[in-house]
Amino acid sequence: MSEEGADAPRLFGDNVTNLSSRERREHLRMLEAILFASAEPLGEATLAERLPRSADVPGLLQDLKHAYASRGVNLVEVAEGWAFRTAEDLAFLLTREAVEPRKLSRAALETLAIIAYHQPVTRAEIEEVRGVSTSKGTIDVLLETGWIRLRGRRRTPGRPVTYGTTTAFLDHFNLQAIDDLPGLDELKGAGLLEGTPPPGFRVPVPSDDDELGEDEDPLSDEDDDDWA
Questions:
Q1: Mean pLDDT of 54-75
Q2: What is the pTM of this model?
């Protein structure tokens, strides 16, 4: 009997029994093992480096996603990568095991939102948007969460540090990419913008490109301890 015969091992029940070959099924097992063991979402490029060269990573991801679609954990695309997550309708079962998240102050939430939408952004630019000063402690709290990072230094007098968000930010807020943040219409629909915005008001289109902008210099080794 050929390897595609009826006795070929069923790795995921009936969902993927139409896979074309034993090799592909083996690649699928490898992919499942890698993603299951990873603490962070993994991108297709990273997965391709860890799988055999003949592996069809995009196709395998779709097969695995389909295989887990009705299970207690699902394969989802998040933070520009792929990861297993508890099915949304079963999240209530994990309530007792869930770690109590650290509650951020209103100042920290406002600062985080400004960094997400306006990155790369300096502390002075954050204060300009908020209309009030932002303490170093507020920035420290967001750095401790791992949701923001130091990007570089602005090529302006004083060379202030620029801030941006991280993949941990995308992962925590279940965003596939930074441009999944709500736009003007979605913010209005959620009741977060009251009344009619003034003429010319726009919600910035966010970007978390790792490449430094033309007005940014790279950080130095001393910046970890002296960034304010």
A1: 94
A2: 0.65
